[in-house]
Input
Amino acid sequence: EIGVPMTLLRLSGEHEIAVLELGMNHAGEIDYLSALVEPDVVLMTNIGDSHIEHFGSREKILEAKSEIFHHVKSGAFVVINGDDPLLNTLPGKLPYAFTRVGAGEGLDYRAEGLVSDGKSHMTCEVKTPHNYFRVEIPALGDHMIYPTLMAAAVGEHFGLTQTQIADGVHHFAPTKMRMNLLHRGDDITILNDTYNANPQSMRAAVEVLSSARGAYKVAVLGDMFELGPLAPALHAGVGDYLGKAGIDCLVAVGELARHIHDAAQAAGVPECYYCPTKAEARPVLDGVVRPHATILVKASRGMALEELVDYLLTITGEA
Output
């Protein structure tokens, strides 16, 4: 409610396109922000469990995000994640032509043949209604196909060529603390994804860790906030997923993270450590860091787990 108006006020005649994230954690916020923006293009990425404490269900989150349609321009270009079951309920309910993207059959924009090097990038073929071309995504995680395909859809909408789109994707750089890959000495890789967390992004990050090339995979995970009464079960779900993903070691940090720890232990993760505080986690990290390790660090913003990333940088050498 502050950042969007400030961004709008910085626009001038030299700008052709503004890309704005409309964030919310309560009903009514998207309505307010979209009234200011009056979008020509709408992208809806997914419906997850973020802020579910304030809504009670994903269906209510969908309702809140759909407030954007109160103020879109006539004939707006609308792009949705076609693999998201809740977003897929929108076409037919609203008077817009929806463009759907994802991995599923029959979608307008699809990613095919996704291959990861497990270290720094992935490649795939992007199939559009007009083109079929190869892109290199300088990031890890299958979930990265969605922003890639949405970028391709918007690019074609505004007349970009397939070469321009592929070049734009190739030059993508994550923002600070969003899956930043830090390569250290002894072939150690730190995945700094500490900006924020919810159950969906936690699983996506664990999937990246699971597919990484490192011989020893460590997840340093902290609390996820604003999950309300569902918090214990949703944290336990992450712990159970660690077992399925074949992670070697968990360092759980924070009060709610105990549920991640207990479920991971039950799911067969070989090494599980529970640390109520970041200070108590430091000596544990001293013991688990070793050559050829890949270490994921992730939690909600309020945990400030980047402090543990800084500590890892001090106990590992330069690459």
